[in-house]
Amino acid sequence: AAMGVSACGHDAAKSTLTVYSDAPTMNPVDVGKPGNSPGDAYYFYANVRDQQGGSVTGHLYGSKTLVKPEDPAKPGTEQRATLLFFVFDNSQDQIVVAGVPDYPPNAPEFAANKPVLRAVLGGTGKYNGAGGQLTSTRNGDGSYKQEFSLTKP
């Protein structure tokens, strides 16, 4: 029994939430010198659905800012600081996500079918106190499967 009490006392509750976001509407912003340079950004938004082709249950807003251009030592990737806002239920329930994943240079989005992890910074409403991570997988049609693994203290 002591072992069970110990495990329960230290494990945060975990839950999963899977939603699907449509192919985003993108607005690129090129700052500084033309071409890829730190500070270049994409601002985007998309509808969020409960299942592929399902009802719209929320919205995704975000930005990705180039922080490290392609390095000859690691060709084919650049790093972008991303900030994602998943907004549900009249803006009261939100999940905020951030990370610095690798992106292919000169392409606005990830390659398809390669899951990318980012941190859940927190949330509001029913997601108040949430932590954990988001796994985003881009589908061939440009939409995304968004799988949250949420921890709640």
Describe the structure.
- The protein is mainly β and 153 residues long.
- The protein has an eight-stranded antiparallel barrel with strand order 1-3-4-5-6-8-9-10.
- Helices cover 6% and strands 54% of the residues.
- The two termini are 22 Å apart.
Summarize the structure.
With 153 residues, this protein is mainly β. It has one helix spanning 2-10, and strands at 13-21, 25-29, 41-49, 56-68, 78-88, 93-99, 102-103, 116-124, 131-138, 144-152.
- How much of the residues is beta strand, in percent? over 45%
> How far apart lie the N and C ends?
22 Å
What's the total helix number? 1
Query: In terms of structural class, how would the helical and strand content be classed?
Result: mainly beta
Mean pLDDT: 90
Map the helices and strands.
Elements (H helix, E strand, L loop, with lengths): L1 H9 L2 E9 L3 E5 L11 E9 L6 E13 L9 E11 L4 E7 L2 E2 L12 E9 L6 E8 L5 E9 L1
Antiparallel strand pairs: 1-3, 1-10, 2-3, 3-4, 4-5, 5-6, 5-7, 6-8, 8-9, 9-10
What attributes does this structure have?
6% helix, disordered N terminus, mainly beta, globular, 153 residues, 8-stranded antiparallel barrel
